Amino acid sequence: DDVVRAVGWTLALTVAAMLIGIVLAAATAVARQSENPVLRYVAYAYVFFFRGTPIYTQLVFWGLLPALYNKLSLG
User: Fold this and answer.
1) Does residue 24 sit within a domain?
2) Which domain holds residue 53?
């Protein structure tokens, strides 16, 4: 019973993460094509930062971020 519930949560979180990623990607793509220079620059900087940072560095940073704040908890 616990395994089935865990699989359900895993699938729900996977779908939620995919939807958030799709929305952010679409918004960034629209912003990159915008006529507004501020919006275009912010989107460019966002893409530049995440492309330029190694994935392992991002995993360590986002994975260890809760350790910086003792009040944050994942469970």
Assistant:
1) yes
2) 2-68
For CA atoms 59, 53, 50, 36, give the dihedral sign. positive
SS3 state of residue 73? coil
CA–CA distance, 31 with 37 (Å, rounded to integer): 9
Q: What is the pLDDT of residues 28-72, one digit of tens each?
A: 999 999 999 999 999 999 999 989 999 999 889 888 877 777 665
Indicate whether 60 belongs to any domain.
yes
Domains: count for the chain: 1
| Model confidence, pTM | 0.67
Give me 28's structure tokens.
């960034």
